[in-house]
Amino acid sequence: MTIMRFLGVMLMTIFLAPGSPALAQAVADGPHLAMRLVAESERPRAGQPVTLAIETRPEAGWHGYWSNPGDAGFPASFGWTLPGGVTAAAADWPVPETLVVAGLMNYVYERPYAPLVALTVPAGLANGIALPIRLTLKYLVCTRTVCVPEEQTLATTLTVGDGAITPAARARFDAWRRAIPRPLAQAATWAVTDGALRVAVPYPADAALSDAYLFPAAAGSIEPAAAQTVERVGDRVIVTTKGTPIAPFAAVLRIGAGQGLAITAGPGVVPGAAGSGGWVIAALIAFAGAVLGGLILNVMPCVFPILSLKALSLARANTGEREARREALAYAGGVVLVCLALGAIILGLRAGGATIGWAFQLQDPRVVVVLLLLAVAISLNLSGLFEVPMPRWAGGAGASKGVGGAFATGALAAFVATPCSGPFMGAALGAALVLPVPAALAVFGGLGLGLALPFLLLGFVPALRRRMPKPGAWMGRLRRILSVPMWLTALALAWVLGRQAGVEGMTLGLAAALLAALGLWIGGRRQHKGLGLGWAMVPVIASLGAVALVRPVPAGATTATAGDAFSESRLAALRAEGRPVFAYFTADWCLTCKVNEKAAIERSGVQAAFTRNKVAVLVGDWTDGDPVLGRFIERHNRAGVPLYLYYAPGAAAPRVLPQVLTPAMLEALGR
């Protein structure tokens, strides 16, 4: 019990002491809450729930209390007397009002209100059986100067029947339900900074908001009497107040008169308040992390060959300063534009309620087919089988020549980099999802800038170009060597396709790749004779038909191999047992995830250490974009996978491990 609530209860106790004239008069005039038990259907169907409303009308000048009364008062207690097999759920309470008396904050109802209770009628009951329902309510009712504990017994009798609801009853219950806070699918986050508790609630930037207030569902998270300031930052509502939560807590955000959202807030990143400059610092840090993460992406096997080929084109062409800079800027433009487009799509879908993150498109096997065909085409191009024709405006016949070719190459590099993640990148993109939209897009642009940075340096620093080897026959050999990582990328994408769409889907994708390769081979033969690709593009275009035919396998058909399947209930059970828990979140299309699993997690030494230290392992497979896992990942400030968490016994929050794991790091867990 907080000090404020203790003082409130003491004041009430003194005021209501025996012999108090005010109490005597109040008791004589009670009850002060007119109550009635109303059923949505007088003839509920056996085996189905029926909703009961406790229709309550406070007497003028009096008020009842919410399920969390605030600094003073106490919540109503429910005593049900029900027929055998009938059960009653906890009451759903309407959005309350605030009332400050003598510095104490109360969460109350001064107008008519109706808590709703779901009553479950057991299956197998014959029509016509009577169901007597009896409810004894003990509650506190107050004015601004006096409080009285009261008790009422409400009763009704239902009859098992067809579950029919009259239009009048439906309209009345619909009105009551509109006053019940709607559950918010996305999780809110909280952080304590400089003694202030700040809570960020996902809420569309263009949605109406008035008279906003955050009601804690239970004592101990938010100080009821503390002032609250509410500001909007992008698609978040930021509430700043006082409180000392130590774990996720439930609350209700009032968004208008009698309207609210039921939220769960966990510790995490909260963007700075508008005008305070706090989010600017967070955005700058996220931008720097995104640039560094994008720079690291250049060494990934799906990006490095494209970058190398583009760099070698500068050496081969022996271009002047102006042309080199133009190509560098065009390449960077293609990279940044694709990253910005993906970021805008992610932010737009999330504003609409979707739970997605970086590489979300790879959750669709049809996109994987497109990437597979691209990887095969790039591999064949690097192998020298054919050259990519470019229009005159793009620089002629060379695959990577001219401004247009550089722009297309940069866009391609950014698109094929989406399965990859690395150090700094996950945290940066996770932070972007809680920043204002312009700042979030800047972070995605920073990722593109980092990805384009090596080629930008080559274009703008002549000394770097002079250090590159002189053109020669070695360039053709290197180009064929660079086809190897691209072939490995194509192989990995085929495996991902098999996991997502089954053997049939993988076979269809490989058949499409074979058809495309056949067309490109014929086209390459024509190019050697001085002709264009011509009709050889027909099978290449036909191969795209596989995109429309591939379908994902049923949910749950693919499973991760190391550890038990993750669920929050399983995690809670293991933590209740005092077990250390290593939880990791992966996807078949995540290259970094698979490298960590093979190089660290699945190593025999690591598995033996887990067994020795009794570390439980939970695996969250996000291959198909499970929204439940997506929301959990988001609560830990990540925009996607990989995510590695270690829960030490008794710790309030998990330790977030780096995105690049080592066996030694994992073997030390649980010691």
UniProtKB/TrEMBL annotation:
InterPro entries: Cyt_c_assmbl_TM_dom, DsbD_gamma, DsbDN, Thioredoxin-like_sf. Keywords: Cytochrome c-type biogenesis, Membrane, Signal, Transmembrane, Transmembrane helix. It comes from the Bacteria. Gene3D superfamilies: Glutaredoxin. This is Thioredoxin family protein. It comes from Sphingomonas cynarae. Residues 1-24 form the signal peptide. The chain crosses the membrane at residues 279-307, 328-347, 367-386, 407-433, 439-461, 481-497, 503-523, 530-550. Residues 288-493 form the Cytochrome C biogenesis protein transmembrane domain. Its main location: membrane. It is found in: Membrane. Residues 46-157 form the Thiol:disulfide interchange protein DsbD N-terminal domain. It is a multi-pass membrane protein.
